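Morning run. Coffee first, then this:
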Amino acid sequence: MKKKIASGLSAALLITALCGCNSSGTDSGSIQEKEFVPSLDTSTETTIEVKGSWSNFEALEAVAADFNEIYPDVTISYTRVDDYTNMLSTIVTGADKPEIVMFDVNGYYKDKSKIISELLDLSDIGLNTYILAGNLSVCSSSEGKFCALNWGNKTTGFVVNKTLLDELGLEIPSTHDEFLKVCSALKEKATRR
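And here it is:
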């Protein structure tokens, strides 16, 4: 019973951290703020153990403090694990499984399929995935399971030499195909030198 309660609390903890408002789910793009209503008994007494690779827990402590305003009798503890990418499969399959593990769906982990098979499918606990923007839900799924909540969206970008593109009569690409064509043109120019 402790695991089921803690797993539900874990999701609530992460959801509380992710957003303070919910999308209305309409196509108009409007956002409707909704008051957070705890779905679990706020007098629940339990401990949630988090295992991860971070050397400190400061950001998560702030989330835990906010969580404890709603669930004051829930203790949240964090343990840093050395060599996390190689140890995670042992952690999630061992006798003393934590309620939450830090897991990057796209990261490298030894025995990744074994890890995913042990993780809770968050869609099974009624998590409203519509609160996640665009591809964040795709980035949280693996092998057909919604098994991770992202802390943020990793954003990458490019520095563009507009003068060089103008010299070649090229535009700044806005699609993947355009990007590949520009790369080919730049490569061709470099080989002609």
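The two ends are 69 Å apart (CA to CA). Good start to the day.
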